[in-house]
Amino acid sequence: MNPVPPPARRGRLPLSLRRRPVPWERQRPTWREARPAVIAQALKRAQARPSGNWYVVGASRTLREDRPLARTVAGQEVVVWRGADGRPHAGPGVCPHLGAPLGESPVRCGTLVCRWHGLALDGTPRAGWEPLPVHDDGVLLWVRLDEAGGEEPLDAPAVPRRPDRARALAAVHVGTGICEPEDVMANRLDPWHGAWYHPYSFVELTVVAAPEGSGDADADRFTVDVSFKVAGRIVVPVRAVFTAPDPRTVVMHITEGEGEGSVVETHATPLGPDERGRPRSAVIEAVVAASDRPGFAVARRAAPLLRPLMRTAAARLWRDDLAYAERRWQLRSTGRFPG
To answer: pLDDT tens, 65-91?
Structure first.
């Protein structure tokens, strides 16, 4: 890997002013650097890493006490709910009696009660219904599907390193696209597109180091210097490192600059085919922000107001990035993908 030059030191204020902004069409082209082979090889190495058959299904905060979370993962209906003690339970979303959709059933005192005939499930095996391993990491919910994953199962998912939850602010965005998880992964393993494709959010993006091939997920990284656009010429410059710890996850850590230690986790979960037989994937992205600035403690107290803004920003980016992933799948599925 090429040596990484040091980033600029963080200033006293969290914002910077672009003194000589370059128009979008005059910025430095990145197509020569964004070599298809580099992206494809990084994707291939990620796909070879173990996941333990764990799939992200949603945000922890969205799992309420009175109703379950329902999702189809790899064509299998899954239902997740909280027991009376607050711990999650998970299992097939098809009632074993006559096939009722358990995702539409209410939760009463920690028990999922089927709306068709009243079969009550407390998370233990009953009437042919068998629970699935489930994990709540405080930000995301994970379910283990051994048949779908086909790997050696792990007792718990390998949750990426995050800031201390007590001093962080987290928000989760969920989107859906006509593509496969590898198309979502390929999008995230192409950091060169950022300032060209998302000029409303990123400027002055430079990939200062790209992986040259490593089986070690921590060493197999893209290092990027980029400025997050706030308004006009006001930006927040940072250094970010992208890694892919498993076949369906890309993690961005802010390693230098404002928000050092913050993380963005992008998880791609296969859902199943749509009515036309095309694959569908969910993008479940967790932004866990942290800062040692005194004002960040005030921001955390305003979390109920800030989380919707964080989700809106993520949704805007993913409208574009899902179009990228869907285009990639469309070309792959018809034998026209040039990469």
So the answer is: 999 999 999 999 999 999 999 999 999
Residue 263 identity: V
- Take residue 230 and report the two structure tokens written for it: 């706030």
Quote the tokens at residue 5: 């030059």
Question: Nearest Cα to 185, choosing from 82, 322, 62?
Answer: 322
Both tokens of 172, joined, read 């989760």
- For the stretch 285-300, pLDDT in tens is 999 999 988 888 888 8
Closest CA to 252 of 271, 270, 231, 225: 225
What size, in residues, is the chain? Answer: 339
Taking the chain, what is the end-to-end CA distance rounded to the nearest angstrom? 22
- Of residues 79, 82, 81, 83, the one with CA closest to residue 92: 79
Tokens representing 281 are 């994937």
How many Å apart are CA 70 and CA 162, to the nearest integer? Answer: 26
Q: Which of 59, 51, 54 is nearest to 285 (CA)?
A: 59
Beta bridge partners of 17: 234
Helical residues (DSSP H) of the chain, grouped into ranges: 36-47, 146-149, 181-188, 194-197, 294-301, 303-333
Are 282 and 71 in contact by the 8 Å Cβ rule? The answer is yes
Reported pTM: 0.93
Residue 73 class from Cβ within 10 Å (0-12 exposed, 13-18 middle, 19+ buried)?
buried
Per the CB < 8 A criterion, the answer to whether 303 and 194 are in contact is no
Contact 170, 289 (CB under 8 A): yes
Q: What tokens appear for 137 in the block?
A: 């990491």
Strand partners, 173: 285
